[in-house]
Amino acid sequence: MIYVLRSPLKLQDTLTSASVFLNTLTPKFYVALTGTSSLISGLILIFEWWYFRKYGTSFIEQVSVSHLRPLLGGVEKCKVWRNPLNLFRGAEYSRYTWVTGKEPLTYYDMNLSAQDHQTFFTGDTQQIKAEDTVMQKAWRERNPQARIRAAYQAIEMNHECAAAYVLLAEEEATTITEAERLFKQALRSGKREQRVQDPVTTGKDINLLVYIKRRLAMCARKLGRIKEAVKMMRDLMKEFPLLGMLNIHENLLEALLELQAYADVQAVLAKYDGKICYFTLRSTPAVFGSCDTFDFDTHDFQTPHISLPKSATICYTSALLKARAVSEKFSPEAASRRGLSTAEMNAVEAIHRAVEFNPHVPKYLLEMKSLILPPEHILKRGDSEAVAYAFFHLQHWKRAEGALNLLHCTWEGTFRIIPYPLEKGHLFYPYPGCTETADRELLPTFHEVSVYPKKELPFFILFTAGLCSFTAMLAMLTHQFPELMGVFVKAFFSTLFTPLGFFADKMESFMPSSFWHQLTRI
Fold first, then answer.
1. Does the keyword Transmembrane apply (predicted)?
2. What's 126's DSSP letter?
3. In sequence order, what DSSP letters do the residues of 234-285 get, joined into one string?
4. Is the pTM higher than 0.85?
5. Coil, strand or helix: which one is 345?
6. What pLDDT, on the 0 to 100 scale, is given for residue 412?
7. Distance CA 55, CA 458 (A)
8. Cα separation, 384 vs 436, whole angstroms
9. How far apart are CA 213 and CA 14, in angstroms?
10. Interatomic CA distance for residues 347 and 389, integer angstroms
C-alpha cells in the first residue's frame, strides 16, 4: 500500500514544479504548439477524407476493426454461401473480361471456389489416386491456363477422370454448348467409374455427380430447354433429398418463373419457405415509402414472429407472386380513397418482409443502381446476394405488369418499421454489421458496394475536422492576443488542477503530520 501511494504522496511537489514550468513558457511556445497541432490534425483530416471517398470507410475505423477488435474478442463473422446460380467461367465470366478488360471475380471468391471443389470432389476418399492428386493441385492453381493443363494431365492418367472434365467445362469451354458436351462426358465417366468401384458410393462421387447433373440442368436452362431443365432439377431433388444445403430449389424457382408456372412456384415456396405464426399489429405510416396519399391510421397489418433466415430468392419470389395478384390494378390514389384490400395488404407485407431480409435488392430491381455479373459466392442479406438475385430475376419482375410500381411505392416504408436495424429487427433478426466487409471481398473493385444502413461521415473525419479547426483558432488567437491567451491558459490549468489540490489538502489534514513526513521520504 505504501509502495502504491509513494507517487500520490509527492503530488504537491509535482504540482508546484508544473506551475513553475507553465509560468516560464512564453506566448511563442503556445503559438508553435497550437499551430503544429492544427497542421497535424489537418493532414490527418485530408488523408481520412481521401480514404473515405475512395474506399467508403474511415481508415482509423478500419484499422480499429481489423486489429483492435480481434484482440478484444469482438470479431463478427458472416458465413459465405455458394451462389446456386453462379455463371460459367469460360463461357460467361471470361467473355466479360475479353470485352471490358475487367475481372468480374475477386481472388477471394475464386479461392473459395477452389476450396469447395477440392473438398467436394477430391477430399472424401480412402485411397487418393494419382489423378486425384493432380486435380487437388489443379484447383489450387491461380493461373487458369495452369488449371487447364493440370486437367489434361489428369485425363492422360485416367481417361475416366470426371473431375478433370468438370474443370474443362467450367474453365476452357467458351460456349454453353461446349460446356454441356464436356459435362455430359464427365457424367458418363463418373457413372462408369462408379460402377467399377466398391458397391458403397463414396461421398466424393455423390458430390461430383450432383454437381454435374445440376450444371447440366443449368446448361439446358441457358440454351432455352426450360422444361427439360425443370425435369432434371426435380429428379435431382428427389434422388438426393438430403442435399438441401445446395439450394437446388432456387434454380428450380427461377426456371419455373421463366415458364410462368406460378402455381408450381407457389408449391415450391410452400415447401421451402417456413410456416410463420402471425399476430395483428396496428399499422403505421411505414407501409408506403414514397406514396403519401394513403391513410395509414385505419388499417391493421399482420406481423409475423421472427423466423429462421431464408434467402433473397425465397422472400422476393413470394413477394412477387403476391404483388402480381394485385399490381395490375393497383393505384396509390385509389388505395388512399378506399383503403387496402386483403390481397393488397398481403402483397405489401410480403414486400416489407423481403426488403427487411435484404434491403439492397430494390435498387437493382428498380434500376436505380447498375448490375454486374454475380459472384460465385454470396453473403445472405448482403449486396452480393442482391446482385445475384436481381441479375436473374429482374426479367420476371418486369414481366408482371405493375409489380415494380408496387415495389417502388412501398419498399422504403420498411425502414420506418425498423429505425435501428443493427440493434433490433422486425420480422428477422437484426441486420448483421459485417456484411459490408465481406461484400467488399466478394465483389470486384469497380462495383460500388451498397451499404446498409447508410453511413454518414465517419466519426473520425468529424473529430479531426473539429480538432483541426479548434487548434487553428487557438493558434490565431494566441498570435493576435498573446498576453490575454497566456492569462486564459494559466486560468484554465489552475482550474483543472484545483480538485487535485483540494484532494491533497484533505489528505494532509487527515493524515498525522509525522506519518506523512515519513512516507514522503520513501
1. yes
2. S
3. HHHHHH-TT-GGG-HHHHHHHHHHHHT-HHHHHHHHHHHS----EEEEE--T
4. no
5. helix
6. 83
7. 12
8. 10
9. 81
10. 19
Report pLDDT for 286. 41
413: Cα within 13 Å, side-chain hemisphere: 23
pLDDT < 50 regions, the chain? 1-6, 9, 75, 124, 199-200, 275-309
Q: What is the DSSP letter of 328?
A: G
343 close to 329: Cβ distance less than 8 angstroms: no
- Asked whether 286 and 417 are in contact (CB, 8 A), the reply is yes
Beta-strand relationship, 377-379 and 300-304: unpaired
- Looking at residue 388, what is its pLDDT? 95
Q: Which residue has the cell 482550474?
A: 495
Quick one: how far is CA 439 from the chain centroid? 4
| Identity at 223, one-letter amino acid code | L
The CA-based angle 56-59-64, given to 5 degrees, is: 120
Give the pLDDT score at 292.
43
Q: Tell me which amino acid residue 22 is.
A: L
Alpha-carbon distance of 28 to 34, in angstroms, equals 10
Residue type at position 321: L
Residue 136 near residue 120 (C-beta atoms within 8 A): no
pLDDT at 288: 44
The string of pLDDT tens digits covering residues 260-310 is: 999 999 999 988 876 443 333 333 334 444 444 343 333 444 444 444 447
322 close to 342: Cβ distance less than 8 angstroms: no
For 155, residues 6+ apart whose C-beta sits below 8 A from its C-beta are 131, 161, 164, 165
What φ, ψ does residue 240 adopt, rounded to 5°?
A: -130, 70
DSSP 133-171: HHHHHHHH-SSHHHHHHHHHHHHHH-TT-HHHHHHHHHH
Q: What are phi and psi of 379, to 5 degrees?
A: -115, 115
**Partners of residue 61 on adjacent β-strands:** none
Given the C-alpha cell 425443370, which residue does it identify?
230
Peptide bond into 8 cis (omega under 30): no
Contact 348, 287 (CB under 8 A): yes
CB 390 within 8 A of CB 365: yes
443-472: per-residue pLDDT in tens?
A: 998 998 888 766 555 566 666 777 777 777
- Residue 60 parent element (H or E): helix 59-63
Name which of 387, 397, 392, 396 is nearest 364 in CA terms.
387
Question: Residue 307: its pLDDT value, please?
Answer: 45
CA 166 to chain centre: 30
Measured N-to-C along each axis, helices 27-55 and 459-480 cross at an angle, to the nearest 10 degrees, of: 160
Give the cell for residue 54: 475512395
DSSP string, 69-105: HHHHT------EEE-TT---IIIIIHHHHHHH----S
- Alpha-carbon distance of 110 to 140, in angstroms, equals 10
Task: State the residue for C-alpha cell 473525419.
Answer: 461
Separation of CA 332 from chain center? 33
